[in-house]
Amino acid sequence: MTHPAGVVERPLGRGRLLGYGVGSVGTGVFSAVPGLLLLYYLTDILGVPAAVAGVVLVAPKIWDVLLNPLVGAASDREAVRTGRRTRLLAIGAAALPVTFALMFAVPGGVPGALWSGAAFLLAATAFACFQVPYVALPAEMAGTQTARTRIMSWRVVCLTVGILVAGGLAPAVVDLAGGGRAGYAVMGVVIGALMAAALVAATLGTRWVPSRPGPRPLGPVAAFRLARGNRPFFVLLAAFVTQALAVAVMLAGAPYVASYRLGDYGLTSVMFVCLVGPSMLAVPGWAWLARRHGAVRCYLAASIGFCAVAVALIPAVAGGGLAATLALTALAGVCYAALQLLPLSLLPDTVHADAARTGQAQSGAFTGLWTAGETAGLALGPGLFALVLALSGFVSAPTGSPVAQEPAALTGLLLGFTALPALLMLISLPFVAWYGRLAKEPV
Questions:
Q1: 55-66: per-residue pLDDT in tens?
Q2: How far apart are CA 260 and CA 269, in angstroms?
Q3: What pLDDT sits at residue 4?
């Protein structure tokens, strides 16, 4: 079997699959922790107003959206010259854990919004250097959709582990370290060290992958001009970004629901595990269903299921029903597995189809655009939830001086956690169906 570019495909044993997938432990941590904890850290630990905190979360990601396509084009140029994407992977793996830890280590006397915002900007830059070439690799590791789905299954399982570390371990470390500013600083160092181990392992574990874009290197402008004719890619990207935004809004709301609706901030970890844990177990099932019924049809079903669960969470959370809330969150996690696995499995198909259309393989350029969209969704989610808090009258206060929230604020954070993600998921459905028609797959 050969790749479209003519490179002989190497067999993918478990060692190579794990060597690639383990990087998603690190990327999962970084994707989830700022969305889950940084907004709460700013508003309830440092006392930063919600509107300002929202700007802190969104601004670095706006930069990342602009940066990712440039990194993608640079990754392709590096691969044309060297046949590998290792250099950018190594830069990101070295810088991201350090800048992540700095986000939660605001020195006394320094404005928290300024320090965390600057560290987040540097971390987002380092993340782009790793994530863009990392997402480009599966299209070069395998030449068939079946093999790429297998790669993505390993990646999504590892991504789930990373998200579980973020949602389960990170808040627990904060509590064990005594909470407050010191607790978050310790968490940043501990989680950053785990992130470093995963990213370095993936950088070393993927050196064997032959990256052969081309036949000629393209600048970012030329790469985008060539890519813009790939309509299936942009339709799939629109669905994925809208759904990433929905999930990010829900993650940002979890600590507030746990604290103000369920009465215990410590339940944040439990809610997170209930959302993400089942997805790890559901990945093999979704992969089997995709082979049997088609990836697009399963993707659409999972999207509808997530929307329905988000709506069902409204009365469960409003009534303070812990068991019902956790059970529905777990059901959302089953759907979440498909929302990760299936679009990432379909992405290389759009890359290979474009190479056949244009004669120019540019996996890095497409993944640069893809990760830019994903980054935008993950960034705007907490910012959008912060806007809901601000509009509903939520009052920020440091840990030592808690305040009672008005009913409007409690209603706002409830709807931000449930109805808003459901609406966004609903908006994504036409894009999923449109992609199926373009790709000529059943929906």
A1: 887 788 788 888
A2: 15
A3: 43
DSSP structural state of residue 22: T
Nearest by Cα to 334 from 305, 307, 311: 305
Return the residue matching tokens 């169906």: 433
- Could you write out the DSSP letters of every residue in 26-76? HHHHHHHHIIIIIHHIIIIIS---HHHHHHHHHHHHHHHHHHHHHHHHHHH
- The whole-angstrom separation of Cα 157 and Cα 159 is 5
CA pair distance 121, 103, nearest whole angstrom: 9
Question: Please, are residues 431 and 242 in contact by the beta-carbon 8 Å criterion?
Answer: yes
List, for residues 209-229, the tens digit of each pLDDT value.
887 665 555 555 665 666 666
Angle at 177 between CA 172 and CA 183, to 5 degrees: 90
In the structure, how many helices (H) and strands (E) does the chain have?
Answer: 18, 0
pLDDT at position 5, please? 43
User: CB under 8 Å to 87, separation ≥6 — which residues?
Assistant: 78
pLDDT band at 6 (very low <50, low <70, confident <90, very high): very low
Residue with tokens 């997938």: 21
pLDDT digits (tens, 9 = 90+) for 381-433: 887 888 898 898 887 765 545 567 788 888 898 999 999 999 999 999 999 99
* Count of C-beta atoms within a 10 Å radius of residue 3: 19
Distance CA 61, CA 443 (A): 33
Q: Which of 267, 262, 156, 142 is nearest to 208 (CA)?
A: 142
**Torsion from C-alpha of 357, 363, 368, 374, nearest 10 degrees:** 90
Rounded CA gap, 258 and 271, in Å?
8
The burial of 11, by beta-carbon neighbours within 10 Å (0-12 exposed, 13-18 middle, 19 or more buried), is given as exposed
Tokens matching residue 382? 């907490």
Dump the DSSP string for 171-196. Answer: HHHHHHTTSHHHHHHHHHHHHHHHHH
36: its two tokens: 């889950």
